[in-house]
Amino acid sequence: MNVKAGDVVRFLDISGGGVVVRVDGKLAYVEDEDGFEVPVLISECVVIKEEPPKSDSNVAASAVAEEVEEYEYIEEVGDDSAPQFYIAFLQGDKPGQASGDLRIQAVNDSNYFVFYTISNLRKDGSLDLFYHGEVEPNTKVALDKLAVMQLDDRQWHVNLILFKKGKTYKNIAPIAEVLKIKAPRFLKDNVFADNAYYHEKAVLLPVIKGDLERKIEALSEREIKKARKEKDHQPVRKKIKRRDDDKMLEVDLHIDELIDSIAGLSKGEIITIQLDKFKQVMDHNKQNRGKKIVFIHGVGNGKLKSELRKLLERQYKKHAFQDASFQEYGYGATMVII
Questions:
Q1: Where are the domains of the chain?
Q2: Vertex 65: Cα angle to 61 and 67 (nearest 5)
Q3: Fold of domain 84-208
Q4: φ and ψ of 126, to 5 deg
Q5: pTM score, whole prediction
Q6: Which of 64, 98, 100, 195 makes a 20 to 30 Å CA pair with 322?
Q7: pLDDT tens-place string over residues 73-95
Q8: Sign of dihedral through CA atoms 310, 314, 316, 317?
């Protein structure tokens, strides 16, 4: 199928569509209704409306514009304090079945360009290169479509180099991370969760990890058991009655306020549960104009606060937000005004 920039398309395998921004090989980069570029195989696109053909003068002007735009300013989202990069797994054919497959993508949630290599890590420490390339800032790139069982008991070695073009930037040391991938995980439907990057559920494996995540991973089984035992002997935290009236609503996003147990959940899955609660409250109150909602997220390492504010900037743009009262909540809460 002949797909070109400017065409309006819809997707075959997943819901959604948009305007084709550019074409690179077998991939079409489609700008969706949220203004986010989505890489999709051309074979999975259906053209709804074609871009009218250009005259020779327009083609020449377009060629000149492309040269000029090579290092044009790229709009940045948020700050550079917490760049994020994920390997995303999305359900394909026969979800939940061992004979099914998965769509694999790289998600660059940062203001940096990212060079990446993804290799299979062998038992002797040697590597087999699977994928490599460059991802533009705040963009997703399709990597592959693999059978679930092809992913069983794999270790992927991921290297990242972050940089910016045409401007100075804060240096970030090259990142090397090993992701452990086990096929049985993808056979459970509840591991695929709502997220800020797709209009469908996905499993997101973080490549850039914070200090807290690394400390948790470094804990031995003995230390984990000891920590759980100490927690069991701690007095139960007294639950505070939160305010909920026509003018003000307080929502505590601490995970122990939302679910009974976090056993077996990764840090990413915990944050997904917290963000789902945030979106549920926002959607429920979107008609209550003028109402103030305080989301209590705590200070911690700032991960939840950062993700929450990204959602506010992307999905809830028309609602104002600010830090909640320092006297009442310290740095641990965000107030949204509907």
A1: 8-69, 84-208, 236-337
A2: 120
A3: Immunoglobulin-like (2.60.40)
A4: -80, 165
A5: 0.48
A6: 195
A7: 566 766 787 899 999 999 888 77
A8: positive
Angle subtended by helix axes 267-284 and 211-218, to nearest 10: 130
How far apart, in whole angstroms, are the C-alpha atoms of residue 36 and residue 181? 28
Extended strands (E) in the chain: 8-11, 17-24, 27-31, 37-41, 45-49, 84-91, 101-109, 113-121, 127-135, 139-147, 154-163, 175-181, 203-206, 248-252, 292-296, 320-323, 333-337
Q: Tell me the C-alpha distance between 265 and 283, whole Å.
A: 25
| Radius of gyration of the chain from its Cα atoms, rounded to whole angstroms | 22
Degrees to nearest 5, angle at CA 309 with 303 and 310: 90
Neighbouring C-beta atoms of residue 153, cutoff 10 Å:
9
Q: Taking the CA of residue 141 as centre, how many other CA atoms within 13 Å lie in the half-sphere pointing to its CB?
A: 20
CB 303 within 8 A of CB 271: yes
Q: Do 155 and 163 contact (CB within 8 A), yes or no? A: no
Tokens of 157: 């070695």
CATH code, residues 8-69: 2.30.30
- The edge-to-edge listing of strands for the beta sheet with 320-323 is 248-252, 292-296, 333-337, 320-323
**160 with 85: CB under 8 angstroms?**
yes
pLDDT digits (tens, 9 = 90+) for 173-182: 999 999 988 8
Class of domain 236-337: alpha beta
The one-letter amino acid at 186: F
Give the tens place of pLDDT for each residue, 185-234: 888 778 888 888 888 889 999 999 866 566 555 654 556 566 556 555 54
CB 178, CB 157: distance < 8 Å: yes
- C-alpha torsion 259→265→270→276, nearest 10: -70
296 bridge partner residues = 252, 333
